[in-house]
Model the fold of this input.
Amino acid sequence: MKKTITKLVPFLVVTAFFLSGYAQAIGKTTSAVEPTAAIKEKATESVYKGRVVGKSNKAKTISIQVGKGAKAQTIMVKFDENTKGTEYATKGHGVIISYEQQGKDLYARSIKPKLSKMPKGVTGIKTAKLKAMIDSGKDFVLVDSRPSTRYGQGHLPGAISIPVCEMQELIGLLPTRHPEFPIVFYCGGPT
Done:
């Protein structure tokens, strides 16, 4: 029996080394497996967030300013019939553009409005309540924050025009906040 064990020990040692090396190789192979295309696409998703500075339907391009101050730069992105949300690419509006590179060109795949968060202390108002305020003749300031061209095409009764893109310069014209004299902003989007 001692002879049998002595003959088996080298076999067991070699087998143990082989199996442990094989297990490590399997682990390496498993961890080196390429991610699926969907995971890769999500990990390398390319997005620009900024303000639209121009749009050409003829050239099928959108120019967007990204960054702030001295670091701001204008990027041009092309769009085609497969691009979703081109109606949100309005000059002066904030957008989020998901794009992909095709050769040397960047192509927008989807465009979404970049919605602002309401500042602390500001509350929302429902359309029905705003209509009731207008109908009642209650004193309040109504601000149309859409682009001036949209204001010129039509606006709510009594509204003044302060487009978002001019808000920083014109905000000082509004009265200071007072609970009995509310200021209501509206736009053409879902906010």
